[in-house]
């Protein structure tokens, strides 16, 4: 207990864990926000399905099967975008997983530090609370990413239904199929965008705690290092020492007058 070497090691490891988690969390927040914007911009593709349904209803001179084939092509394009979006969500999840692991490691190191100190201090208690807040935000972001996966799955299932449907001459039935696929895909994309924004909101909400935790962990590490490597007595200058007396002795009594000479 109270081993300066162990305390220095724990604080150094703690600073490294938090320092590694911080840029990952910030990256996830930014990437999720950017992807949400991309999803919104892709809504025009989904809107094409609604236009195809309107064509079935209004273009009496065009066979429903012909328009349905065109809608299938649009649906296939939408499915490709959703598939790529799912891959981007997985990449974001990978960074979030790494951040979470570093925070878990940080919590373990924090517990060892408290034990080595012989119990919690106001500073370690505050730091532990920050770690809990950060871990809670990461978990909430994970839940939103999982919900985003479900939204993507629902939307892809809707377009797959349209892609694999049988061609038919029935105009009302064709319009209903296309319109159903459009509505379900539109709702899925909207939900996807919402969940991605939730990721950013969760992580941005703990940005002050993240910044403070990084600063405090560095402060703890520096204090422990200073305690482990105190300034040698030979390099210390006490008040009234010979060095200070020498400085006073060579300091001009009137600096202005000295400059005017």
Mean pLDDT: 87
**Helicity level:** over 70%
Provide the number of structural domains: 1
Series of secondary-structure elements, N-terminal to C-terminal? HHHHHHHH
Strand content: under 5%
Q: Give me the Rg, rounded.
A: 31 Å
Largest sheet: none
Note the gap between the termini. Answer: 63 Å
Number of strands: 0
Number of helices: 8
What are the segments in which pLDDT stays under 50 over at least 5 consecutive residues? 236-252, 254-261
Q: What is the overall shape?
A: rod-shaped
Secondary-structure content class = mainly alpha
In words, what does this structure look like?
This protein is mainly α and about 260 residues long. It has one domain (about 5-235). It is about 85% helix and about 0% strand. The chain is built from eight helices and no strands. α1 (about 5-40) packs antiparallel against α3 (about 65-115) and α4 (about 120-165) packs antiparallel against α5. The model is unreliable at about 235-250 and about 255-260 (pLDDT under 50). This is Chromosome segregation ATPase. It comes from Kribbella italica.
């Amino acid at each position: 207990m109270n081993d300066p070497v162990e305390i220095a090691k724990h604080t150094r490891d703690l600073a490294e864990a938090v320092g590694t988690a911080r840029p990952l969390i910030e990256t996830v927040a930014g990437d999720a926000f950017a992807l949400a914007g991309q999803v919104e911009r892709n809504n025009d593709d989904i809107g094409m399905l609604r236009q195809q349904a309107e064509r079935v209803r209004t273009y009496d001179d065009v066979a429903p099967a012909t328009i349905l084939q065109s809608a299938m092509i649009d649906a296939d394009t939408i499915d490709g975008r959703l598939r790529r979006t799912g891959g981007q969500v997985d990449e974001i999840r990978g960074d979030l997983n790494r951040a979470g692991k570093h925070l878990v490691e940080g919590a373990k190191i924090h517990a060892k530090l408290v034990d080595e100190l012989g119990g919690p201090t106001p500073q370690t208690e505050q730091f532990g609370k920050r770690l809990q807040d950060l871990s809670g935000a990461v978990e909430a972001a994970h839940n939103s990413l999982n919900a985003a996966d479900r939204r993507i799955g629902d939307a892809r299932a809707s377009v797959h239904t349209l892609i694999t449907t049988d061609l038919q001459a029935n105009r009302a039935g064709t319009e209903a199929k296309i319109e159903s696929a459009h509505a379900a895909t539109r709702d899925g994309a909207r939900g996807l965008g919402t969940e991605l924004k939730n990721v950013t909101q969760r992580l941005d909400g703990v940005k002050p705690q993240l910044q403070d935790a990084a600063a405090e962990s560095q402060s703890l590490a520096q204090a422990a290092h200073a305690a482990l490597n105190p300034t040698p007595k030979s390099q210390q200058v006490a008040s009234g020492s010979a060095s200070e007396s020498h400085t006073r002795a060579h300091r001009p009594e009137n600096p202005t007058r000295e400059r005017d000479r």
